[in-house]
Amino acid sequence: MTADDFYLLYLHGFNSSPLSSKARKTYDYCERLGMAARIAVPELPHVPAQAMNEMCDIIEAQTCPVVLIGSSLGGYYASYLAEKYDLRAALINPAVNPARLWHEHLGENRNYYSGRRYTITQDHVEQLRAIDTPVLRHPGNFLLLVQTGDETLDYRLAVDKYKDSTRIIQDGGNHGFVGYEAMLPTIFEFLAPPHHH
Question: How many domains does the chain have?
């Protein structure tokens, strides 16, 4: 795999940040492969429509194929973008119905990393609903990685939604995905575009 093969967009989860453990491990892995210039780990705005507009701008600006890794809410976002642009995506414990969960977060929230306070409104919940992809048109584009010990999301929802995709279901673990680093070679192998000889 050469560094010119693809551009990787890593989408972090709800209340997370580019400083999260998985985001950093993904970046470090790219750096070791000599493709640090080919990965973006943007900080996602808490407003879903704004987050998606910014990601669409990034994707449309690239000249080489874009691939996605999305964790938790980032996995929900990655599903929308992968379907919209026909991209390959690896999803780590992805959210399947975040609008339902966000109802519990209406009002003021605080980011775990930056400490920044922000407000989630009913409008944000509607924006999440607007980008739902209940039926996948390109299930072959997705690699699903879930751990059954996820304490935040019901892993079975993802197992069902991505039933026609490549799935890796690990017993135990947690929402952060234990042993994520060990999965990176598998993830990158899946994401790499096929070589044309």
Answer: 1
pLDDT by 10s per residue, the chain, length 197: 454 579 999 999 998 999 999 999 999 999 999 999 999 999 999 999 999 999 999 999 999 999 999 999 999 999 999 999 999 999 999 999 999 988 888 999 999 888 999 999 999 999 999 999 999 999 999 999 999 999 999 999 999 999 999 999 999 999 999 999 999 999 999 998 665 43
CA distances 173 to 99, 138, 152, Å, are 24, 28, 12
State the CATH number of the domain containing residue 84: 3.40.50.1820
Q: Provide the domain limits for residue 176.
A: 7-191
Q: Which residues pair with 143 in a beta bridge?
A: 90, 166
CA angle 178, 128, 113 (to 5 degrees): 45
Dmax of the chain from CA atoms?
54
Measured in degrees and rounded to the nearest 5, phi and psi for residue 157 equal -65, -40
Q: Check: CB of residue 30 under 8 Å from CB of residue 37.
A: no
